[in-house]
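Figure S7 source data.
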Amino acid sequence: MQPLLQADAICVTFGGLKAVDGVSFSLNAGEIVGLIGPNGAGKTTLFNALVGLQPLTSGTVWLDGERVCGLKPHKVARLGMTKTFQNAALFPDMSVKENVTTAALLRHDLKGARAKADTVLRKLDLTPIADADVADLTFPQKALVEMARALATEPRVLLLDEVMAALTPAEMDEVMAVIRALKAEGLAFLVVEHHMRAIMALCDRLLAVNFGRLIADGTPAQVAAHPQVIEAYLGHGAAGKEAAHA
Ligand SMILES: Nc1ncnc2c1ncn2[C@@H]1O[C@H](COP(=O)(O)OP(=O)(O)OP(=O)(O)O)[C@@H](O)[C@H]1O
Ligand SMILES: [Mg+2]
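Tokens for the predicted magnesium ion complex:
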């Protein structure tokens, strides 16, 4: 079976810095894959490269057999792949529904986009806060609205960059239940989270990166026990960051 997403030897350099250094992996429909690694390892840069926000220095990205590297983000989104932003980038002076409608304009006229927004908000149980200002939302509400906005573009592959960063364990469970329900519908996820509990509970497979390089690709248990992964975390103090969240 052809993977839904295939990344071949992706490199992104900033001046002399190899932020992403020859990363290859694949992702299948209905799969949740976690991307872990210490701060500065290149996770966000890799996400940006996949969705067209960051030009590749070299390498190829295939989405369902089609080359998407070199395309603008809205073109990649139209083909079915989009990402959330690490620090929620919602429009603060718009309502929840307006934020989600804006994203749905990718595939619909205004009337259709409003209808799509209604459908997505209902699906994520956000209808009661549809008219709220984004500025007034709680952290878990913001996380769900970020996801709603991404879902309104009707992706087949959704990249989540630390959507659960500010959440309590109970709030994380709520967001994870939503992600699992979407997975059951065939959506594929790449997930960056520093909360190892969430990553271990949610992901079918993990990719670990350090200094831009892929150092492990396997089941969560295999990757968590991988000597280079343990070394990467202990060496960078990211284990301390995780402990602070626990
Ligand atoms: N636009 C840029 N210009 C120059 N260097 C950059 C740029 N974006 C990222 N970098 C550098 O590339 C490396 C990878 O950064 P990136 O943000 O991808 O890491 P990350 O794994 O997402 O980290 P975090 O866990 O802290 O979010 C870092 O050394 C960072 O300083
Ligand atoms: Mg990042």
